[in-house]
Design a protein that fits this description.
This protein is 59% helix and 0% strand. With 81 residues, it is an all-alpha fold. The protein has helices at 14-27, 32-35, 41-56, 63-76. It starts with 13 loop residues before the first helix and ends in a 5-residue tail after the last helix. The protein has one domain (9-76).
Length: 81
């Protein structure tokens, strides 16, 4: 399993802390998929904007269908997050 250095939640400041706070508000916690870009807050912000648009924006797929696709891809890639 790969190891990626991240900013701990209790050490986050500035933009990283804002993104972490938004993650907690949105999902109840800061998932590792968010933390992986914590050393580059501008990338984290861009990634989260992309993710939110992908999962919540207009689509012919329901939210449940989108989540099922994400879970299936994660299982196929043997990715646990």
């Amino acid at each position: 399993m790969a190891w990626i250095r991240t900013v701990a939640e209790n050490e986050a400041t500035g933009s990283t802390k804002q993104q972490y706070d938004a993650a907690v508000k949105r999902a109840g916690r800061v998932y590792n998929i968010v933390k992986i870009s914590s050393l580059k807050p501008e990338i984290m912000r861009t990634f989260m904007q992309f993710y939110i648009q992908l999962m919540h924006g207009p689509s012919g797929l329901s939210r449940a269908q989108r989540e099922m696709i994400a879970v299936t891809v994660s299982v196929l890639n043997q990715c646990r997050y």
